[in-house]
Design goal:
With about 450 residues, the protein is α/β, with parallel strands linked by helices. It contains 20 helices and 14 strands.
Length: about 450
């Protein structure tokens, strides 16, 4: 059902059009001059306007232009008893969806209307999608550390300089990368993400640089790599410290020369790509252990950005809680819930070893599982994965890292036991990549077989 306005100075046309459109199940309004039409559009949200070219007070083309300025997503279908190609072309250039000659046939009216409704629905869905993407990419927080991150994002976005983002899992490193891209001059070009930890070593070079047909078993056709697909745009190399040594050498060459060859190929491919890299590991330690090239690090680390964990930006937790409560209520078609004072106090003082990602998952679970409008402390205790309220309050900043690592280790062990040592199921429940969980298991020397 659409909201339709018919504008014509002939009463018989108004009555005929109204009858046809109401029979189709739409809500129809009618006016006889341009002034009333514009007043209606100013005061009401409409979907489609049938507009006569010749009106007693204002030229129909002028009315068309003003309607599009007032509501750009409204579809305007022009109608005229003096139809000509020139008028039709002019109205289309001014933003009209279609042009009908009087007296319009019922079939022609309905066909044009249905096409217009389909177009405006697609248009509005696209606008909503972009809005949701923008909201998803939004950096929530006004604390000192987050203000510093936003300041550096703005500085980095104004340039083509390479950016190296560091921070724990779940802090929002990808959001930072996307914010830089969205504000940059390359925002209308591709943004290509590569999770280096999720790609096997034997495939990472093909993934990044592409391959030629027959270059290895299974290479049945030429494939373009991520760098080639990102030409003129931005490539985001997430978890770059997990990249193989040979791939690191090729990436270094791309940074130096903006050139590479596909796997199995001899042709030199030249690209113009901005590189943003990120990692959650200690880079200096990775360099000392020989896992990450020092020269590549210095090439990438032109603009460093450290994304703080939630424990270093606790003032932002209430903002994040409210943001996610509204987000998931909207996504799941539920009423927006609120936190009681004691519940919010708990959320603000919890250690959040999984950072924003863990907070997000917990809020979504509470939004769905708690039936009442107010979320109480007991609700959180029932639905949070693992906690000890007293132990999760940060008391000693000097031992914060050690305490957080111990908590994370115990948290992972409990989750592995809960899912009968199934790593894939455990990773899914924790909201992290399976390869990331394997790395954590090695990092904390967790013997899965003995759990």
């Amino acid at each position: 059902m659409a909201k339709i306005l018919v504008v014509d100075d002939e009463k018989n046309i108004l009555n005929t059009m109204k009858a046809i459109l109401q029979d189709e199940g739409h809500v129809v309004y009618t006016v006889q001059n341009g002034k009333d039409a514009l007043q209606f559009v100013k005061s009401n949200e409409g979907d489609v306007v049938f507009l006569d070219v010749w009106l007693p007070d204002i030229d129909g083309m002028e009315v068309l232009q003003q309607i599009k300025q007032l509501q750009n997503d409204i579809a305007v279908i022009m109608i005229s008893g003096h139809g000509s190609i020139d008028i039709a072309v002019k109205s289309t250039r001014l933003g009209a969806f279609d042009f009908l000659e009087k007296p319009p046939s019922m079939e022609r009216v309905i066909t044009s209307l249905n096409n217009a409704i389909e177009q405006i629905q697609l248009k509005r869905e696209n606008v909503m999608l972009k809005k949701n993407i923008t909201m998803e990419d939004e950096m929530i927080g006004n604390s000192g550390p987050m203000q510093e991150v936003k300041r550096i994002i703005d500085m980095a976005a104004a340039t083509n300089a390479r950016v190296f983002i560091t921070g724990e899992n779940g802090t929002g490193k990808e959001l930072v990368a996307r914010a830089i891209y969205r504000k940059s001059k390359r925002s209308d070009k591709p943004f290509i993400k590569v999770n280096c930890a999720a790609i096997p070593d034997e495939l990472i070079e093909s993934e990044l640089f592409g391959h030629e047909k027959g270059s290895f078993t299974g290479a049945l056709a030429r494939r373009l790599g991520k760098f080639e697909l990102a030409d003129k745009g931005t490539i985001f190399l997430d978890e770059i410290c997990d990249m193989s040594q040979s791939a690191q050498a090729k990436v270094l060459r791309v940074l130096q020369e903006q050139q590479f060859e596909r796997v199995g190929g001899n042709d030199v491919i030249t690209v113009d790509v901005r590189v943003i890299a990120a990692t959650n590991v200690d880079v200096k330690e990775a360099i000392e252990q020989g896992r990450f090239r020092e020269d590549l690090y210095y090439r990438l680390n032109v603009i460093p950005i450290y994304v703080p964990p939630l424990s270093e930006r606790k003032d932002d937790i209430p903002l994040l809680v409210d943001y996610f409560l509204e987000k998931f209520a909207r996504e799941h078609g539920l009423g927006v819930k609120q936190m009681s004072d004691s519940a919010m106090h708990f959320m603000a003082n919890y250690a959040w070893p999984g950072n924003v990602r863990e907070l997000k998952n917990v809020i979504e679970r509470l939004t769905i599982m708690v039936p009442s409008e107010i979320i109480e402390l007991d609700d959180i205790k029932k639905h949070i994965e693992s906690y000890d309220y007293e132990d999760t309050i940060v008391k000693d900043s000097s031992s914060l890292k050690k305490a957080r690592e111990q908590f994370e280790k115990e948290y992972i062990i409990k989750a592995l036991k809960q899912f009968d040592k199934n790593v894939s199921a455990t990773a899914k429940s924790l909201g992290i990549e399976r390869t990331n969980l394997h790395r954590k298991i090695r990092q904390y020397h967790i013997n899965v077989d003995k759990l």
